[in-house]
Amino acid sequence: MKELSFELKPNRIYGLVGPNGSGKSTFVKAITGLVKLDSGKLFKDDSEVSITSPKHAWALGISAAYQDLSLVPNLSVKENLTLIAKNLARLRGSNHASLLQEFHIILDTLHFTVPTASKIRHLSRREQQIVEIAKALGSSPSLLLLDEPTSFLTERDIDRLFDLLKQIRSDTTVIFVSHRLREIFQICDEVIIMRDGKAVATFDLRDVSINELVKIMSGGASITWESVRTEVTSASDAQSHYFLAEVEARKVNKIKVMLQKGEILGIAGLVGHGQSEFLKAIYGIIPSRKRVELNGKPILINSPSEALRNGIVYISGTSSETTLPHRSIRENISLVINGLKSGFSLANIVSERQLASAMVSSLGIVCRSVDEPLRHLSGGNQQKCVLARALSLAPKVLLLDDPLKGIDTVTKAQFYKLIAEAAKNAAVLFYSSDVEELLPIVSRVIVMYEGTIVGEFKGAEMTRENILAAALRGDKQ
Amino acid sequence: MSGVRKQVLQILPGLLFLFLISLISSILMPRFVRLLPSSLLLAIPTAFLALAETLVMISGEVDLSLTGSLVLINAVAVSAYTDYHINELLFLAIPLIAGLIIGVIHGLLVAFGRLNSFLVTAGTSFAWSGLALVILRQPRGNVPPWFAEVFSTGKILGIPLAAMFALIAALFWLLFTLSPLALKSYAVGSSPKATFSFGINVNRVKFYAFVLNGFLVGVAGLIMTGIIGSGDPRLGGFSTVLAVLAALIGGATFAGGTGNGLGAFLAAIGLQFTRNLIAWVGVAHYHLDLFYGAALLVLIAGISYLRRSREI
Predict the structure, then answer these.
(1) B206: helix, coil or strand?
(2) Chain B hits for A55, Cβ within 8 Å
(3) pTM for the full predicted model
(4) Per-domain residue ranges for chain B?
């Protein structure tokens, strides 16, 4: 984050948008004292305030739901909230029981149905996100910061959250960070656009269109939003198939897919209906009973290393599952290639560096050098490194497990091109929690509900409305 | 109510382990029941060390200096009584004060000096036992006669000492779990980053964990001094390792954020009983540690296996 200066008026909802690495998360962390400001001043009600630790932020009534969550995984929901309530009560000289009550009301409003005695690490990412939001909202803040709160939520959750935000806006100023421009237009009054650590513009949302926003975010370059879809005859029509997988696993109820070479199959459905598990089972991360055929030959996959040897590559959008944050970009990109070599062969640092540099330039990864630790990169750039790793293997089958989560519109367009390029020599299975992400690129969509396929759409039938309807209804029409 | 159930569930592994060892011992060793009060008392210092270790492990740190601290506390107390003839009541307070000071030093270095507790306590471990050697030079000195008497009879006012100490430990653990520090410690150990974001002072929580740890080591030192009735700079043996092991059986992990002090307390007693059992079975003295070590390895493997199968 470089220079940033803006005024927030009370009782308004601000959208904060910008490409990955433009400093949105850093901004949220700086305001709440998690990251120290090198220089800069904060004013509240015209008087200067100093926030050097989260304690000061809480005391001033500033609270945030962070993108990378800030909950203690080994404690229960209730214990986490108790800890905050007690601390907050001490800071404000109020009663912690009533604060705790407030947290629980928010949880109920957002339909959090899990017992509050469950540990955070046993919750799904969606449930954790709801607790994170309740943590920030329940403290009745005067300034509320929500950093990508919707990435893991279902459509209904998002509606409920937006209703809540509309209710509290009379007492609160909200800063809402999201890549989903549709949401920004739905809930915000004004939008602040960030680029390269600077706030480049602020608009009243009545005066600006989505396309104009995208243009400013990307620095004036026009973004092609036309479809990159490649038309192939779907495997279900054709006699032969390139890739076949029939899987039975936890949360997956005998799912069979057949793909042609060059086909991109979209997988949709509400979050947590076995889509991730289906892909993980094919890759061999989770135990399953399955039949996999590639090029008409059956192959046996009991572990990721066997999958990789057969050219089947998996990418997850949850970066903690797939990256070594403290190691360099170069090491993260060449990790899998090295893993496939025998244990006694030497790593070829020169060729690794060449590979990493090539990937950095072709994917547009923003970094100082390929030897920089991965954790220094923004979330979106880390995700690009994960994609770089997969592409460097020249995959025959590419499994994409919600890979675009938290990635900005500009980067997404680049991703699509790369995936479409890779798909020329491969079959791609692409799961996304956001239907809009699938439509520009896939040739066919299957919809999953409680571990089974409840719908399949292609051509003109493949619309957001049809897919969502199938995902919500959960039965075949 | 759920808090009570959780406590019971957490104490269970340590309790079960102690129960099993006691059961096997009582079948194989005819004298086990008769010797129980004295063998329990001998196990109490290590049990307090296990409780002390658990407190720092919960907050995500570790204390490797237990043996060294124990020796230093023993040396200071005995030297103060033998060489400087201090008041007999003050003699009782000295180990506790010495323990607290040691805890404060560790706490300052780890929490505010931002040093790794593994390295800090590995270093101080040598420093403390070296200091004990400087103070005592050789096994020597004595303690107030009535103090030695209490420990040789193993009773005070008709109450078995071991039972009393166990009760004190239980009370200490209860007070700790009821205090706000408990939840904060578990939180800090589990995710310092998240806890910091709640506005909680992470360093202060770690500091307090070490201070409490020091106090408990002081209690262990006091009891140890009573049991041997003199000063000995070579005391302690493997107590640090046993305390860590007992803490692990009690549910603690090196990653932090978990652990149960009372479970560790009971597990430490169980570990001492295991050693007694191996000795009694007729293993030659110079083979004892070898067999004990093998038994501990089997035990660790068993516990890790059980934990893993429960996770899935």
Answers:
(1) helix
(2) 199-201
(3) 0.76
(4) 44-267
